[in-house]
Amino acid sequence: MKFDLWYSEYQTKSLKLSTKVKDVLYTGKSEFQEIQIIDTYDFGKVLILDNTYQTTERDEFIYHELISHPALFTHPNPKTVLVIGGGDGGTVREVVKHPSVESIDFVELDEKVVEACKEHMPKLSCEIDNPKVNTLFTDGIKYVAETEKKYDVILVDCPDPVGPAKGLFEEEFYKNVFKCLTDDGIMVQQTESPLFNTDLIKDVGNYLKEAGFGIIKPLVCTIPTYPSGFWNFTVASKKYNPLESDREEIKEKLKEIDTIYYDEDVHIGVFLATPKYLK
Amino acid sequence: MKFDLWYSEYQTKSLKLSTKVKDVLYTGKSEFQEIQIIDTYDFGKVLILDNTYQTTERDEFIYHELISHPALFTHPNPKTVLVIGGGDGGTVREVVKHPSVESIDFVELDEKVVEACKEHMPKLSCEIDNPKVNTLFTDGIKYVAETEKKYDVILVDCPDPVGPAKGLFEEEFYKNVFKCLTDDGIMVQQTESPLFNTDLIKDVGNYLKEAGFGIIKPLVCTIPTYPSGFWNFTVASKKYNPLESDREEIKEKLKEIDTIYYDEDVHIGVFLATPKYLK
After folding, report:
1. Is pLDDT above 80 for B125?
2. Does the annotation mark B157 as catalytic?
3. B70 or B164: whose pLDDT is higher?
4. Which residue among A6, A53, A192, B266 has the highest number of C-beta atoms inside a 10 angstrom radius?
5. Are A224 and A54 in contact (CB under 8 A)?
């Protein structure tokens, strides 16, 4: 007998995305969640947490470049960066590319995810041990509530708003993020699907406004393995408007920074391309 | 016994997207293909041709607005439009919204698709009987080869390049489209996934260049039920560059045209947001 092994995620009760599995590379359980890393035919290695696709080798550049570079190129000189979540290391890898950045505090809840990705997904986790990166295994919600540090950029690379990540989408969290940013600081968070989660996107926008951010901009892109594939990041800024960035300056800086997706046009395009109904 | 009915599309040999089915509304076979219309929980009514998702009520506005408005707003005064394919009628519906358009030739291979959509998907097919629309059931490849008519805008709303649609992605077709366009004409075609079909997108770009188009621009968006969700249209223009359109003028015209997704910012954004690797 010969079996085909497939991994299926129920993205809603009535929508299922299935990938054929080449190999199961890791399967484990931490105190927070179930962790799997599988190898697939279409997406290469895939990280799965609690039966939810998190990131894939094939398309991770879309997510990781778009959560990081629009903010890091909007700020003229980002030196200190806080990354909350993103245990696979992809976001940290993009931040490390910026020569202006002197230190990155990488706050991830689940050490087991980082360990698994360090072993099985080195393309993503390759910069976690960079001397500029200071890794802290703790709750990001608690961290921003308690720390007295200030950051130029805060990137919230969080899972869906269920379980321990729920608080990353609540009013209190955004107030603390505002507090932890310098006077010209910028934050970015993944904020789910503009097709399936419009209410959440609206709520986050309102919380950010109440927290004191003057500039709040959604950006859209495609993340193939997320529900509907249509995805959204929200950028909140105290001073700099990403739509007013100098494209020539970004182009100049990009001579030193390798990207696959992001360039000076994408910097503007992902904001402008946001559908009318979401604005 | 109680059964759950699901529809699954193998989007590749190793990637499957499944939707739970509320009801099967239509199932038939024409001389060209198998036709199904199902009602689903997440996407409303869905048109399926030869086991491939074509369009869904829930997200069809993304596809239909982006295949039509970027070209129709780039051209300052489109009067004559040719729509090839798009038997569901969604593209025709968007074209009809433009007051400048005087006549639309709607060339669709399969009359049975149009009949089924007229009966079961009136939200899309509602303008097919508009007096401005002249429907011809014939092969679009043959039509552009033989007609002596000239159009301001040609929209190629075609299925994947397999079976009878293969010729819609070949050199000869683009030469004929060029011939059928006025001196300042513009064409748009859906050109598959920027993740899975980069070679095809590159080939189409080259064919369009060889056909004589001076301005060729890819635009990107998300179509949730297509393979990878990451999707691409190619715009080819003889004279007008969509990136040089006057956004204020578009905004003014949009006071008379209802859209859900498209606006004057999206007009620019979808082109600028095209990933660096695709440019």
Report:
1. yes
2. yes
3. B70
4. B266
5. no
Q: Model ipTM?
A: 0.96
- Residue B273 and residue A221: Cβ atoms within 8 Å? yes
Q: What are the binding residues of B for S-methyl-5'-thioadenosine?
A: 33, 108, 139-140, 164
Please, are residues B277 and B223 in contact by the beta-carbon 8 Å criterion? no
Q: What is the pLDDT of residues A162-173, one digit of tens each?
A: 888 999 999 999
Q: Which chain B residues are within 8 Å of A243, Cβ to Cβ? A: none
Interface test mutation site (partner A, options B13, B222, B226, B268, max chain A beta carbons within 10 A): B222
Q: What is the pLDDT of residue B198?
A: 95
Domains identified in chain A and CATH numbers:
6-54 (2.30.140.10), 60-278 (3.40.50.150)
What pLDDT does A184 receive? 98
Question: Which residues of B line the annotated binding site for spermidine?
Answer: 64, 88, 157-160
Tens of pLDDT, residue by residue over A75-104, are: 999 999 999 999 999 999 999 999 999 999
**pLDDT confidence of residue A3:** 84
